[in-house]
TrEMBL record:
InterPro entries in the cross-refs: Alkaline_phosphatase_core_sf, GAG_Ulvan_Degrading_Sulfatases, PA14/GLEYA, PA14_dom, Sulfatase_N
The protein's name in its UniProt record: Putative sulfatase
CDD domains, per the entry: ARS_like (cd16145)
GO molecular function, a single term: hydrolase activity
Biological source species: Aporhodopirellula rubra
Gene3D superfamilies listed in its UniProt record: 2.60.120.380, 3.30.1120.10, Alkaline Phosphatase, subunit A
Lineage of the organism: Bacteria, Pseudomonadati, Planctomycetota, Planctomycetia, Pirellulales
Assigned keywords, A-Z: Hydrolase, Signal
Record domain PA14: where: 555-703
Entry EC number(s): 3.1.6.-
Length: 703
């Protein structure tokens, strides 16, 4: 029978550790609380806006015959930071949005590939993390992660969606629930130009528990979301000025139906101009007038552009006007200095219009910028997304952040600015240091996996060998400054193509096998991707059955590393991000029965244990964890067992994983109240329940 390994082991103090010896992250610890109020956070996410659609990133310097301007976003970039190497988790919306909200990359996400409308897993989200830190939270716009409807719907459909936004940490929701509803941008109107019945009829629109589409006549969603965001921000600022807020503003444009507004953007900006909330049925906003789908910006007409080109440029310009309006609202409310605003997109540019008999191609304005690839590609044009960060009191004007980063980093970043720790499940690192230009930071785990049919578009400005190249199973890893990418994977051992993006952003020169250095790098990439992800039965991959590679053999000594940090936490935190005094770290030998521990006192703490286990052979192993307090376990960088969210001390959590023969690193993090927590972790080879590999088998590298 497995035993509870208990509190304060009778242990031998070997040494205070040099944390670099075992590969821990560098961590800065705050010696005292920041006296300033926690900042507000706004995350603006566009739908299918390409890296090349921003003036400051591509349009302004483009030599392409057709281009447009984004003056408000350019101003935001000049006043803040450009994150020039920021990546979405997958080149399509559902997995990208799920990874963003959950703070995990696609190797750990419960929503993968094309799983639109699948329920967002019930775990920590951006909203729960910030709500726990005292924030008021809201989502305005497109959601698409609600899950199926079950049972009687007489009490309202919102109560039947298992992952409705208000069940995932958001206090307020105003927008489209379903993915497909966000394809149309006039929720209350018929659109006779649509290419199918689904793209011609009104859509449901929800405000918390009420469906309100019939109140939204002639409301264009970019305007509607902007007006409600301004209203919500103003109310939070004036009515509850002691609590910070987090707003996730998810525009559904410029994707899908290329619909345009009813009228020009109202004059002025901010509290007394621009888009305004009116709040009357049939006139919810001040642009709910005139004819739907009729307005084009004058600068986009009379240039011999096609109808769809005028439409697309108008949609982007409307987003640009809206962002400028929002930033001015923050200034008018005098909260701009203490508000972090991030602007990004869920994936690369699309190539559809949903109009009858006419389509749209991102070649019109080179929406993919200087890269190859579009939406659904893992070439740079499909996954590198336009990203800006604006925080007047903290981000120096004109900052250029070229460090690679990805959506799951925002959970760690927002927790950092909220002066709390992200949960241990988070795969991200805080971007505060790099985007404020203050210091280096821990490297992001940039990782993409995605599967879809079809091929890369055959555009003339794409490298010839990529045109019409089959997609299939695809995978991307950033490692040591290089991009590894695999497309149409059929062999689990298929090599990565390796690119130096700094000098070859268009991915024209594959460096794989060009020298011993890249032969070694290839093996490192092959090993690393297997050490940082877990298979998902709903999105099977060719490499799912590959055993996780073991680590190189080094001299070991029996024992386990235990680190302790004081502090009270609502969940198992990422240990390296704890905002407290540096933790103690000691090496302990053996895992004997619990001794007396009166010297520990009654303070709340978080414990981290790091140890290495030797697997006797390649094979599938069963791990089982039970703990008296919330706990979390990783093997290498992969999530092994999550016993944190909805923790139940009476329940065992178990998993199976294929591991290669040899040494594997395990990290166990858990909360504790009044002493060290009670826990046990067991490991058995499949079919052998008698030999617990964790029973005295822990080792660590010799100092």
């Amino acid at each position: 029978m497995p035993r509870f390994y208990a509190s304060q082991f009778a242990c031998l103090l070997i040494a205070v550790l040099n944390l670099h010896l075992i590969g821990l992250n560098d961590t800065g610890y705050a010696a005292s609380p920041d006296p300033k109020p926690a900042p507000n956070v706004i995350f603006i996410l566009c739908d299918d806006l390409g890296w090349g659609d921003l003036g400051v990133l591509h349009q302004n310097e483009s030599t392409h015959p057709k281009k447009f301007a984004t003056p408000a976003l350019d101003a935001m970039a000049r006043e803040g930071a450009q994150l020039r190497n920021h990546y979405c988790p997958a080149p399509v919306c559902a997995p990208s949005r799920a990874s963003l909200l959950l703070g995990v990359h696609q190797g750990h996400c419960g929503v993968r590939d094309n799983q639109f409308d699948k329920a967002l897993p019930d775990n920590h989200t951006l909203a729960t993390v910030l709500k726990t830190a005292g924030y008021r939270t809201a989502i305005i716009g497109k959601y698409g992660l609600q899950g199926g409807v079950k049972g009687d719907t007489s009490s309202g459909l919102s109560q039947r969606w298992s992952a409705y936004p208000t069940k995932r940490g958001f206090d307020d929701f105003f927008g489209y629930v379903r993915h497909v509803d966000g394809h149309l941008h006039y929720p209350a109107e018929d659109w006779p130009l649509g290419n199918s019945e689904n793209h011609r009829t009104p859509k449901e629109f929800w405000h918390n528990d009420q469906e309100i589409s019939q109140q939204l006549g002639r409301c264009y969603t970019t305007d509607l979301f902007t007006a409600y965001a301004k209203k919500w921000i103003t109310e939070r600022s004036r009515d509850d000025n002691t609590a910070p807020f987090f707003l996730y503003l998810a525009y559904d444009t410029p994707h899908a139906a290329l619909q345009v507004p009813t009228m020009e953007y109202p004059s002025g900006q901010g509290l007394n101009g621009g888009i305004q909330w009116v709040g009357k049925d049939g006139e919810m906003i001040n642009t709910a007038h005139g004819t739907i789908d009729s307005f084009r910006y004058p600068e986009h007409t009379g240039k011999e552009w096609s109808d769809v080109e005028e439409r697309f440029a108008t949609m982007v310009k409307r987003i640009d006007d809206s962002v400028g309006d929002l930033l001015q609202t923050l200034r008018d409310l005098k909260i701009d200095e203490n508000t972090l605003v991030v602007f990004s997109s869920d994936n690369g540019p699309h190539h559809e219009s949903y109009l009858k008999d006419v389509n749209y191609a991102p070649t019109s304005f080179q929406s993919y910028g200087p890269f190859d690839g579009t939406k659904r590609d893992t070439w740079e044009g499909g996954i590198r997304v336009p990203t800006l960060a604006w925080w007047p009191s903290q981000i120096p004007a004109g900052t250029i952040d070229r460090t690679p980063s990805q959506f799951h980093d925002w959970m760690a970043t927002f927790a950092d600015v909220a002066r709390t720790s992200p949960p241990a499940v988070c795969d991200g690192v805080s971007l505060v240091r790099s985007m404020t230009g203050n210091a280096d930071r821990s490297a992001s785990k940039v990782y993409v996996e995605y599967s879809v049919g079809g091929s890369t578009q055959p555009y003339d400005d794409f490298e010839k060998r990529k045109r019409k190249r089959k997609r299939g199973q695809m995978q991307v890893l950033m490692h040591k400054g290089y991009k590894g990418v695999r497309v149409n994977i059929t062999d689990p051992n298929a090599p990565f193509e390796i690119y130096d993006l700094e000098n070859d952003p268009s991915e024209t020169k594959n460096l794989a096998d060009t020298s011993d250095e890249f032969v070694k790098l290839q093996q490192e990439m092959q090993d690393r991707v297997l050490r940082m992800r877990r298979p998902n039965e709903t999105a099977k991959r060719p490499y799912d059955q590959m055993p996780v590679p073991s680590l190189p053999a080094v001299p070991m000594t029996p024992g386990i590393i235990r680190s302790v940090a004081k502090g009270s936490f609502d969940c198992v935190p990422d240990f390296d991000s704890i905002r407290s005094q540096p933790p103690s770290a000691v090496i302990i030998k053996g895992i004997p029965n619990r001794p007396a521990e009166s010297h520990l006192g009654n303070e709340d703490r978080v414990y981290r244990y790091i140890g290495f286990l030797d697997m006797p052979a390649d094979g599938e192993y069963r791990f089982e964890l039970q703990s008296s307090t919330p706990s979390f376990v990783r093997v290498h960088d992969a999530i092994l067992i999550d016993n944190d969210f909805h923790h139940d001390a009476s329940q065992k959590r178990s998993t199976r994983i294929r591991l290669a023969e040899g040494r594997h690193r395990f990290t166990i993090t858990m909360l504790a109240k009044q002493g060290e927590p009670m826990w046990y972790l067991t490991c058995h080879a499949e079919g052998d329940s008698s030999n617990d590999l964790t029973d005295g088998g822990w080792g660590i590298p010799k100092p």
